[in-house]
Design goal:
It is a single chain. With 236 residues, the protein is of the alpha+beta class. It is built from 6 helices and 5 strands.
Length: 236
């Protein structure tokens, strides 16, 4: 009597999904290397778009920061593999915690910008970091571990007047929040303090019009910008 064949399982094998994801990431990684080996902003833009698509990351958003000079990163300046891995870990962590509305990652031609809405990091009107926001900052600073370039942190608020004995204005509050984020990078992520600069914009650099509660919530934010290249200070 002939032996029965084992019943075939429907669909593709389980290993194929992981293998396909790995191949996609490797392809994006090598496209990024090739594009940055030639100092061509158009090619870099195409490559960063491919990387963004593979990781579910936003494309460049001009409202995040006012960036004047277009600087294309050099391969020698950046460990692309470690950076890509750190970005992917951050995105996975954000997805697992269902905080997609609170954290945005923006890859630009000058660096990597991370926008974090302040309710995730601070109580209203306060500048002391919430413990629940610290794991997100830790993963953000993992991205900055792979090279020694500058990290700019800016604090922003909405246009509602502050009613707080600790701070006289939104300007002061936004700067205090930026400083708290920098202090975490120095004291807990062990990044050199000379890499950081901080600024508080108050309500004067809104990402969205302050015409609804939803938009005001989106304007209450901290932005961390990790530059690709070190730009010398003209005054030093």
């Amino acid at each position: 009597m002939a032996k029965k064949c084992k019943e075939c399982v429907a669909g593709s094998p389980a290993w194929m999904t992981t293998f396909s994801d790995l191949m996609s990431l490797l392809l994006c990684f090598f496209v990024l290397i090739v594009s940055m080996s030639s100092v061509d902003p158009q090619e870099f833009s195409k490559a960063s778009g491919a990387l963004s698509g593979s990781l579910g990351i936003l494309s460049e958003d001009p409202s995040t920061m006012e960036l004047v000079h277009v600087i294309v990163p050099k391969v020698a300046d950046v460990d692309l593999g470690e950076i890509s891995t750190a970005i992917s870990k951050l995105q996975d962590f954000v997805d697992q915690q269902e905080q997609q509305e609170s954290i945005e990652i923006v890859i630009t031609s000058q660096g990597i910008a991370i926008r974090i809405l302040t309710p995730l990091l601070f109580e209203r009107g306060m500048a002391e970091l919430n413990p629940r926001g610290m794991p997100y900052l830790a993963k953000v600073y993992e991205i900055a571990q792979s090279w020694d370039n500058q990290i700019r942190v800016s604090g922003h608020t909405d246009d509602l007047s502050i009613d707080n004995a600790l701070y006289d204005s939104n300007w002061e509050l936004s700067f205090a929040r930026a400083k708290s984020v920098i202090d975490f990078g120095v004291n807990y992520a062990s990044l050199p303090p000379e890499r950081f600069s901080g600024v508080g914009y108050g309500e004067y650099r809104p990402a969205f019009p302050n015409d609804s509660e939803r938009n005001r919530k989106r304007n209450r934010r901290v932005e961390i910008f990790i530059e690709y290249e070190v730009v010398p200070d003209p005054l030093t």
